[in-house]
Structure formats: structure tokens, C-alpha cells
């Protein structure tokens, strides 16, 4: 099982734009409204934090690999190699590079219409780390920090998420 997580602040922002750009998914009148619902787990597919806490229980399962979106963005080639090895493959350096070249955010976004149809442009919007800084108020920032501390600080998944690196202003 390959489990992908993204830091909660960028996840919230990405999910907000997803909700407001897919006609078949409920939209929100404002970021503030969405943020409140997100923090209370009242968005489609439920609570990020409940989901993370549940998956954290499986972080050491030998048949489960956790990959962090930010790690993919920062070193896609190394991540591709780790994923391949986890699934028992031994690709050459050239194969790893070829896969990484075709799996960059921009490469995937460029093919989104072909691979994902009408929702492709919504699924692959920006893909940047730190976009949360464009929407979060200081109060929202503090609320998310407190929620992370209660739910994930001190856990193995919390450490993998590198919250202090990606989610501190």
C-alpha cells in the first residue's frame, strides 16, 4: 500500500480550490467558511486529522509505504527510486530518471485533460509548497498549529510531515 500525505495547510488550500471548481462538489462562499468546516472535519471525505491519526497506526506496517508530497516535490528522483524498491523493482538510473521526468507536477498537469478528463485542470492547479501563506489568517495559522500539536505532534507521521519546515510562517 502506498499512502500519500501532504502537509495539512497546503492540503486545506488545495481542497478549498477543488471544492470551488468542481461543479459536482459542494462549494463554499469564502475561505473562512471552508476553513471552519475543514477544521471540524465537515468537508467531503471527512477530517484530515482523523484520517492522518488512523493511518499513523499503520506507519510501521511492512506492506505500507508513506510518501510525503513535499518530498516528491523536493527530490522526485529519490522518491521514485524508493517507491520502486518498495514494490520490489530494481530500475536502472535511466529508468528512474525517465519516470521522474514524466511524473513532475508540470508534466502531469500538462496531460491532465487527457488522463483525467474535465476534472484534470482542477486536480492539478498549482502544486506549490507553501501556498497556504496566501490564504491563512494569523488566527487560522494558530488554530491549525494547535490542532496539529494535539493530533500529530510526536507521532511518526507527524515527523514525516516536517510541519515545522512546511507549515510555520
The CATH superfamily appears as: P-loop containing nucleotide triphosphate hydrolases
Strands of the biggest beta sheet: in what spatial order?
1-2
User: Into how many domains do the coordinates divide?
Assistant: 1
Give me the CATH architecture, please. Answer: 3-Layer(aba) Sandwich
Envelope shape: globular
CATH class: Alpha Beta
- Give the oligomeric state of the chains in this entry, treating copies of one chain as homo and distinct chains as hetero: single chain
- Work out the number of β strands: 2
Range of helix content: 55-70%
The major beta sheet can be summarized as: 2 strands, parallel
Order of helices and strands: EHHHEHHHHHHHHH
Number of helical segments?
12
Radius of gyration, CA atoms, in whole angstroms: 17 Å
CATH topology: Rossmann fold
Task: Give the DSSP E fraction (strand runs of 2 or more residues).
Answer: under 5%
The termini sit apart by 33 Å
Q: Which runs of at least 5 residues are low in confidence (pLDDT < 50)?
A: none
Domain Sulfotransferase: 1-152
Family: Belongs to the sulfotransferase 1 family.
Keywords: Transferase
EC number: 2.8.2.-
Quick take:
The chain has helices spanning 8-21, 31-39, 48-56, 69-74, 76-86, 93-102, 105-110, 112-116, 120-123, 138-151, 156-161, 163-166; strands at residues 2-5, 65-68. By secondary structure, the chain is mainly alpha-helical.
Task: Report on the architecture of this protein.
Helix content is 58%, strand content 5%. The protein has 169 residues and is mainly alpha-helical. It has a single domain, classed as 3-Layer(aba) Sandwich (Rossmann fold). A two-stranded parallel sheet has the order 1-2. The longest helix has 14 residues, at 8-21. The relative contact order is 0.19.
Amino acid at each position: 500500500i502506498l499512502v500519500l500525505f501532504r502537509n495539512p495547510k497546503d492540503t486545506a488550500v488545495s481542497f478549498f480550490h477543488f471544492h470551488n471548481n468542481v461543479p459536482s462538489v459542494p462549494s463554499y462562499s469564502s475561505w473562512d467558511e471552508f476553513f471552519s468546516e475543514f477544521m471540524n472535519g465537515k468537508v467531503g471525505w471527512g477530517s484530515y486529522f482523523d484520517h492522518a491519526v488512523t493511518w499513523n497506526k499503520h506507519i510501521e506496517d511492512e506492506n505500507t509505504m508513506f510518501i510525503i508530497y513535499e518530498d516528491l516535490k523536493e527530490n522526485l528522483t529519490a522518491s521514485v527510486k524508493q517507491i520502486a524498491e518498495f514494490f520490489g523493482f530494481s530500475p536502472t538510473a535511466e529508468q528512474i530518471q525517465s519516470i521522474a521526468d514524466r511524473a513532475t507536477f508540470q508534466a502531469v498537469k500538462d496531460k491532465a485533460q487527457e488522463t483525467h478528463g474535465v476534472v484534470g485542470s482542477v486536480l492539478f492547479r498549482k502544486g506549490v509548497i507553501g501556498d497556504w501563506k496566501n490564504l491563512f489568517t494569523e488566527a487560522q495559522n494558530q488554530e491549525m498549529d494547535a490542532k496539529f500539536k494535539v493530533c500529530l505532534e510526536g507521532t511518526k507521521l507527524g515527523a514525516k510531515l516536517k510541519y515545522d519546515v512546511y507549515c510555520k510562517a
